[in-house]
Amino acid sequence: MSDLPFLRCExxxxxxxxxxxxxxxxxxxxxxxxVVGLLGDNGAGKSTLIKIxxxxxxxxxxxxxxxxxxxRIRSPRxxxxxxxxxxxxxxxxxxxxxxxxxxxxGREPTRFNWLGPLGLLDRKMMNRVALQALxxxxxxxxxxxxxxxxxxxxxxxxxxxxxxMHFRSKMLILDEPTNHLSLKETxxxxxxxAALRTQGVSSIFISHNLHHIYPxxxxxxxxxxxxxxxxxxxxxxxxxxxxxxxx
Amino acid sequence: MSQPAPGATVTSPGGQRRRALTKxxxxxxxxxxxxxxxxxxxxxxxxxxxxxxxxxxxNILNIMPELGLVALGTTILIxxxxxxxxxxxxxxxxxxxxxxxVNLGVPPAAAMALSLIVGMAIGAxxxxxxxxxxxxxxxxxxxxxxxxxxLAVILSNLAPPAFPPGMPVxxxxxxxxxxxxxxxxxxxxxxxxxxxxxxxxxxxxIYATGGAQQAARDMGINTxxxxxxxxxxxSLLAGFAGMIQTFRMQAPMxxxxxxIELQAIAGAVIGGTALTGGVGSVLGALLGxxxxxxxxxxMTMSRVDANWFQLAIGVLTVLSVVVNVVxxxxxxxxxx
Lengths: 247, 336
Hints:
The structure holds two protein chains of two kinds.
Chain A: E1 7-16, E2 19-29, E3 35-39, H1 46-53, E4 61-66, E5 69-71, H2 76-81, E6 84-87, H3 99-103, E7 110-111, E8 120-121, H4 123-136, H5 153-167, E9 171-175, H6 183-198, E10 202-206, H7 210-213, E11 219-224, E12 227-233, H8 239-246
Parallel strand pairs in A: 3-10, 3-11, 6-9, 9-10
Antiparallel strand pairs in A: 1-2, 1-4, 4-5, 7-8, 11-12
Helix pairs in contact in A: 4-5
Chain B: H1 13-26, H2 31-47, H3 54-79, H4 87-103, H5 108-132, H6 137-158, H7 170-173, E1 175-176, E2 179-180, H8 181-199, H9 201-211, H10 213-218, H11 223-249, H12 260-270, H13 282-301, H14 309-333
Antiparallel strand pairs in B: 1-2
Helix pairs in contact in B: 1-14, 2-13, 2-14, 3-8, 3-11, 3-12, 3-13, 4-5, 4-6, 4-11, 5-6, 5-11, 8-9, 9-11, 12-13, 12-14
């Protein structure tokens, strides 16, 4: 395994009006297949950093390198094309649409591809692949035709994870994926993240719940007031010591 | 209630499947439109037996395309999460532009094409202003309602009131037996729209954009482009519908389509379109239109004073949504 990290961001800065949301952040993610926990209180800059990596916002200064080469992330599509999948804090789904349609939003498999946006959906394939993707994350639903609004919160997050896992190539960003989940569902999500490593996929796991991150993270990055305040390897500090760093 | 009702039998797999199917059916957004259409048609058939005659059915079909196309465009745009109040004015303006061009010496076919492009451009302008300045489409298109209507009146004063000879009238309103060709246009356009909306990529994007814009954007969909195309399509369909009416009446009228925007919204809503976006169908738009047309024809044939028509539309619009909510509520509680 090379020493080159999958993703490196250098001197990222971001202002929102007068708020300096990100202060000269330089970080590396995905040294090999690793789980990086990103910690910090509200307003620490975690979300801003993630929004930049997933293409929702652009940094004011600084650059991003993918596999050592400068990369442009100007839209969510760019980020996905570079192999970064994001699981959002809110479940990024259209509730009235079916599971299969939600899994393939924006990346629908079509017949007659040359028709561009008018390409016909390959619905058979969508349903088959969707069910398989759900089974891969241990979610056994009867049909991929069910509207997402009929699922429980945990099942919805499961579909979001199945979607990201299906399209994942290099890195998965999970932004507070355990919010609003039951204890059992949370455990399941944590198991997925831990399993990613064995599948050769890196992940960035954002949470303000240290107890979710500490057991599975290979590294932890602590942010506060827009800057990185600590980078820790597994076992550097006890969970209590890390907790003290955050607040 | 976890206890089965006394006398309930153990569910067989077949019963289970049937119940699941019934539930799906009841959850269809078009369900109240279907129920109301059956009720209203039965009612008129009892009061005025001639209502079900071939002649009256042909009558209903022949005047359907104009409202139908406007309702279809409106439905598509509402699914994408936006509104267009200016369709009635565009309905009048587009044929007016066409006749004005013909009077200037432009060949009829070119004038038709150009005026339809004007219609589309108005929709695109609505969309651009709405999206670029992030203002409610209700406002943008309310403004356009006045602007386009005013332009239609101004143009009608420029053009001679007579319908010029040599217009390709047959293209849109020729009669095949007793049916007007515009019915075929409506059907073909509906089929195309249904395929696009329900079976293609962009159809999926339209529902996603209207149903959950942030999610659509985060999944890489260009929601602005999606909405802009829906604005343009809606306005284009309204202009085309206006052209059909002008050809049918063979007279340009600056007041054409007055109030049709609200009928179109009523039709869309009766057909199960959710004003919040993300829900609706081509079938629903058609159902809503048929229902409105059945009511005005049925009322005429039952010799009801025409002034009751608006009251009927009003009652029906509210009733359809209420029926939908009640049926869906029941269905959601069904075990399946």
